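Changelog-adjacent note: as of this version, every example in the card shows the full chain rather than a window. The one below runs 364 residues end to end.
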Amino acid sequence: MLKKAATLLLVCGSIAIAVGCSTTTSSHFLYAAIPASSEIVAYREDPNSGILTPLSVSPILAGPGVESIAIHPSKKFLYAANSGVTPLGNISLYKISSTGTLTEVTPRTNVGSVPTILTMDSAGSFLYVGNSGSEDISVFSIDASSGALTPVPQQNGTTAPIGVSPMNMKLSPSGNFLYVTGGQTQGFVEVFSVNQGVLSPLQPNSVFVTGNNPFGLAINSGGTFLYTANKGDNTLSEFTINADGSLAQLQNSPLGGSFTGPVSLFIDKSGKYLYVANQGSTNLVAFSIQSDGGLTVLSSSPFGTGSNPSFIASDPNGKFLFVGNQGSSSTSVQSFALDTNTGTLTSVQTYTVPGTATSIAVTD
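Full-length structure tokens:
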């Protein structure tokens, strides 16, 4: 499982001279999972500057090996996958207060072995859990009032087998299809149709070939294009998503030459730009997304990062990107301002941080 760096820690006063400190109160909160210490760190985001300020309650004790987190669209609940529990992992449910504080609701919910990926439909009706150890997917319905999870039985048992450790997992915007990447010497995307949380392999073919080690996965907001970042062969694959959920690789796909160790993808809020985090070349490469799904590299690209950039996250307004860097001796988060007219990124600040995070989620 790709380790996606890093926690976010800064004191506003220490950077006031460089960027200034806004007095605007933000209702946006950012959370990062730290598996090594089994903690979740929590921050308030200033929407005017992109500055992150740690909450007084942070860090928050979490489940063993907390690996992935997801926030309910109501902003009331946060779910965390705990991968350090044996023989089965579990999911923690937290209530989010108006001040960003997390309060866990027990007992925790059992899932498969080594849960590493969480994804949720846009309505917040179902939670999908990718289990790397048992190579399957657990699905739960979500109670809108309490956030409680109820298992959704699958076609042939309690979980949906996928036969490989999932590297990444995304739902289509409609929630009708689930896409899972896996494979190393030969990567692939496995597609499931979704009906009230029940997964069915797409017929007549559910597996589509992509590049090697497809850690990165992104789907545009229209649900018409899918991209994978393939670390194993330093390429980026481009697909059209057909009406039935199947994939058709674009003619010029895969793209190569601009990537060394691509591991993470991010499409900005406007849907016009795609960003690729390249661990080997310590940068972000940016593309404009054409009407046919093709990609054109921006003339202002690439944008320098810290060593081993491993994930990209955004604030809810789409004005700032946060890049997690996994240095061998230190970890950091780099803040970028995003020009929504050109796609250009301008570095705001790099923050040295005390630990490596594997997942980040921001309230809308």
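Structural remarks: Residues 1-24 have pLDDT under 50 and may be disordered.
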